[in-house]
Every structure is written in structure tokens, then in C-alpha cells.
Specification:
heterotrimer; A alpha+beta (about 260); B mainly alpha (about 140); C mainly alpha (about 110); B: about 140 residues; mainly alpha; 5 helices; elongated; C: about 110 residues; 3 helical TM bundles of succinate and fumarate reductases
Chain lengths: ~260, ~140, ~110
């Protein structure tokens, strides 16, 4: 028995544990009810190879400052809740590893172009109302609940026309990165425009004319200048810039 | 609940380095557009001196045919070439030309619209602008 | 006017201006640079009717394109019904003033002297 025990204790662990480093996390703290301006609070936090920015923020909440306001949910880039500005660039906190930032100082701030509720949580009211304005649903005269048809059939090719735009998780990173959204409070925004294309490109939809009419406005699709920042920051490969330019092709006359 | 509007404002335009070449091209397009508009208004104004006779025209030339004037004109040449070539790229891109085809996005989700064709066009417009400026310098200072 | 119509005009004036400005610059390059700026040479150009018409077209195209671009930038900077109306009408007025002033030069240089 003693021999087996000593043999067991000699075994090295099969799991490789990455070394622990530490980074300085600077969190923007702002409570509109009590503060006149945002301030940065610094925390030194241990990190390992796969630690994400969200892990670090939650570690701060758990051990150092429970008052930090942050939205998160799925922790796997599916829900779009944890969008924030990380080292100056909009990104999902759960999807950004500390190691890929290549910096010992990580600064997290609320996303730009959204009103701040508190600290890192921002208000999505205007975002969702603009999205609804573009009629984000299939518009048809008939219904699939008809006598001889049970469903609308689509070929894989027809699905591919709009599939990537349906991957949008409404995280708001694109609106935060957009240079027009930085100054134009009436601009529809890349998210809503990309969603308009998602439905226009869907062959089940008959609402193209309605949507084109809505976006053909002085603060509509024409205020997009193809800076491409929306597609740069999109975490789901939606590529809103592509959707917007393809949508504009209908208005310019390049597409029918 | 009070809301703090959090728009980046004009700072959002002035920091083109964060988001890649296309954002830089957008920033340069705005800058060159405004610069060219200012030059165009000045040009219409300066050429109007021709209606006041030879002396007035000569006086205008003395003001503009200087080293500073030639440098400004060289910069205008560069702005014009960049704005034109990039403008054609943007016009085509905004019509959906060269932005790629929709498909199933796969990790690492590289956006098809920000492809090498557009990047090459932006670099070409900067390169052509530089070449035009060099030619302009040769013509203006070569005499 | 619908924004799509305005932007089509913006694109159209851009393409037209590119062609005509290229011709305008080539004209200047038919002579030595400093020679081409001599008073007699410039007046001769204004007296040549097709060239004068081309200059007028460039004036109109570039004024429309330039001030529409400025209008877009200004509309993106600030919003509001009053402000937007002021920007729209201000830019139209600026186009009219610049075209009028430039046309005066072309007419007086071409026909008035």
C-alpha cells in the first residue's frame, strides 16, 4: 500500500496550469444621479492564459468592488449583453481575452453613442426603437397557414443570401464604432440598416419598397460612408457594411 | 432616471487609427473634400481678378506664384487625386460593387466587405496622389 | 427632394467634374506652366467659346458637389428642424452665390472686354 501511495504522489499532473500574471484594470465609474463626470478606478487583478475581460470584471465585483454595474449573461458571445469599450475599441467582454490585448493595463468604458445608465451599462431604448422602425419581420400578403402550403420553401442558396445578417445579436458594437453615430443622433445606424437588408434579401419577404422608403432619408442609409468600422468590430461576422452597401445598390439602381 | 448622452462627438472622426484602413480613408476623404472646397472658392475668387485688367491679374499672380503658393497647389493636387480615385472606389462600393457576396460566416469572421480589393484601391489612391504631387512639384519648381 | 435623388446628383456631378477638370488641367499643360498663366493666354482661353462653356460647367458641377458634401457634413454634426433647414437653404444659397460670381467672371472675361 505504501509503495502505491508514494508512486501516486510522484505523478505529475496531466493538466498544464498556466502561470498567473496580473493586469491593472481601469473601470470607468459613473452614476448619473450623483456624479458630474466619469472617473476611472484601478484594480490589480490576477489573470491566466484564457482569462477574458468579463472574467476580470466579475473578479473585481466579487472581491474588490461589488458596486461595478455591468451587463452580462451567456459568457459565450451569443447574447450580446456585455458590449463595452475595451482599450478604446468596442468589443464583447466575454469574447476578448486579456492576452490578446497585449497590454498590462486594460481600460473598460461604456460603449460610445449610447446613453450611460451606470458604469458600464448603457441604455438600449433608442437602439431597439430604431430597429423596430425598420420592420424587422417578414412582410407578406398571404400567410403560410394556407390550405395547400404548409411552409415557405427556401433553397440553401436563397438562405445564404441573408443568413449572415440574421446572425446579429444586437450587441450594439457596430453602432458604437460608427463615425456617423458619433455625431448624428438621428442616424438609423449600421445595425438597423443591416437588419433591413436581412429582410429585403429574404425571398419570403415582400416589404422591400416599404423599407427602402424608410431608409431613403437625410439621416438614413445615405449617411453611411462605408468607413467599415461596424464590420471591423462585429463579433458574429454579420458584416453590416456589406449589407448596407448591397441595400444601397437598390436605391442607386445597381440592383433591382 | 437621468441619462448621460455618450456620443463620441467629433473626436469619433478625429481618431482614424483604431479601425483600419477604410476608416482612415473615410477621414482623409472628409479632410480632402473640405480642403478642396476651400481651394475651389479661393480659386473662383482669385481668377475673378482677370476682369479687372492685366495689372490686377499680375498682382494676383505675384500673390499666388510664390513658394508657399506652389506648396499649397501641390497639396491641392494630392488632395484632388486622392479624393477622385477614392471617391470612385466609394461610389462603386456604395452600389454594392466589390463588397463580396453574402455567405455563411465562419470563425474568425473576417468581413468580406473589407477585402483586399478595396484596401488596394485605397493604397492606390494614396500612391497616385503622392505621384501626382511629385509631378506637380517638378512642374512648379522645375522652371 | 428625396435624399436618393440628391445623392445621385452628387455622384453625377462628381463624375462629370472629374472629366472636365482633367480637360481643364490638360489645357493648362499645352503650354509651359508660367506661360499658360500669362494674362493674354488666359483671356484667349475665355474667348474660346467651348472652353468658356466647359469652365461654366465645371463651376456648376463642383459648386453643387462641394456644397452638397458640406451640407452632409454639417447635417451629421448637429440635428434639429431649424438647424437642418438653415443648412439646406444655406448651401443652396452658397451654390447660387458662387455660380453667379464665377459666371460673372466668365461672361465679363469672355465677352465684356
Amino acid at each position: 500500500m505504501a509503495a502505491i501511495t508514494s508512486k501516486l504522489s510522484d505523478e505529475s499532473p496531466s493538466t498544464i496550469v498556466s502561470p498567473t500574471n496580473s493586469v491593472t484594470l481601469r473601470i470607468s465609474k459613473f452614476n448619473p444621479k450623483t456624479d458630474s463626470a466619469a472617473t476611472f478606478v484601478e484594480f490589480k487583478v490576477p489573470v491566466q492564459k484564457w482569462t477574458t475581460v468579463l472574467d476580470v470584471i466579475l473578479s473585481v465585483k466579487q472581491h474588490l468592488d461589488p458596486s461595478v454595474a455591468v451587463r452580462y449573461s451567456c459568457r459565450q458571445a451569443s447574447c450580446g449583453s456585455c458590449g463595452m469599450k475595451i482599450n478604446g475599441r468596442p468589443a464583447l467582454a466575454c469574447y476578448t481575452k486579456i492576452s490578446e490585448l497585449n497590454s498590462n493595463v486594460v481600460t473598460v468604458e461604456p460603449m460610445n453613442n449610447f446613453p450611460i445608465l451606470r458604469d458600464l451599462a448603457v441604455d438600449f431604448t433608442q437602439f431597439f426603437s430604431t430597429h423596430k422602425k425598420l420592420k424587422p419581420y417578414i412582410i407578406r400578403d398571404d400567410s403560410e397557414v394556407a390550405e395547400d402550403t404548409k411552409e415557405f420553401l427556401q433553397t440553401p442558396k436563397e438562405v445564404e443570401e441573408y443568413l449572415q445578417f440574421s446572425y446579429c445579436i444586437k450587441c450594439g458594437l457596430c453602432n458604437s464604432a460608427c463615425p456617423t453615430m458619433a455625431t448624428d443622433s438621428s442616424f438609423i445606424g449600421p445595425q438597423a440598416l443591416a437588419q433591413a437588408y436581412r429582410y429585403v434579401a429574404d425571398n419570403r419577404d415582400a416589404g422591400k419598397k416599404d423599407r427602402l422608403k424608410i431608409i431613403d432619408d437625410s439621416h438614413g442609409i445615405w449617411r453611411c460612408h462605408f468607413a467599415g468600422s461596424c464590420s471591423q468590430v462585429c463579433p458574429k461576422g454579420v458584416d453590416p457594411a456589406m449589407g448596407i452597401q448591397l441595400l444601397r445598390g437598390y436605391l442607386v439602381g445597381f440592383r433591382k | 432616471m437621468e441619462r448621460q448622452s455618450n456620443r463620441e462627438g467629433i473626436k469619433g472622426w478625429l481618431n482614424p487609427g483604431r479601425y483600419g484602413l477604410e476608416r482612415f480613408a473615410y477621414w482623409l476623404m472628409r479632410l480632402t473634400g473640405l480642403g478642396l472646397l476651400v481651394y475651389f472658392i479661393a480659386h473662383v475668387f482669385e481668377t475673378s481678378s482677370v476682369v479687372n485688367g492685366k495689372e490686377a491679374w499680375q498682382k494676383m499672380l505675384e500673390l499666388t506664384q510664390t513658394t508657399e503658393g506652389h506648396i499649397i497647389l501641390t497639396i491641392v493636387i494630392g488632395m484632388c487625386v486622392f479624393h477622385t480615385v477614392n471617391g470612385i472606389r466609394v461610389m462603386l462600393g456604395q452600389g454594392g460593387v466589390g463588397v463580396g457576396k453574402p455567405g455563411r460566416p465562419d470563425y474568425p469572421y473576417k468581413p468580406a466587405s473589407l477585402n483586399s480589393r478595396h484596401k488596394l484601391c485605397i493604397l492606390a489612391s494614396i500612391g497616385l496622389a503622392a505621384l501626382a504631387m511629385m509631378y506637380g512639384l517638378a512642374v512648379l519648381f522645375g522652371e | 427632394m428625396q435624399e436618393s435623388v440628391i445623392m445621385k446628383i452628387h455622384y453625377g456631378t462628381a463624375l462629370g467634374a472629374v472629366v472636365l477638370v482633367a480637360i481643364h488641367i490638360l489645357f493648362r499643360m499645352t503650354q509651359n506652366f508660367s506661360e499658360s498663366l500669362q494674362y493674354e493666354s488666359v483671356i484667349a482661353n475665355y474667348h474660346f467659346l467651348p472652353y468658356a462653356i466647359m469652365l461654366e460647367l465645371i463651376l456648376i458641377l463642383l459648386s453643387v458637389h462641394g456644397f452638397n458634401g458640406l451640407r452632409v457634413i454639417l447635417l451629421e454634426l448637429k440635428q434639429g428642424v431649424g438647424y437642418e433647414k438653415a443648412v439646406n437653404y444655406g448651401c443652396i444659397a452658397a451654390i447660387a452665390v458662387l455660380v453667379a460670381y464665377g459666371s460673372r467672371t466668365i461672361l465679363m472675361a469672355g465677352f465684356g472686354m
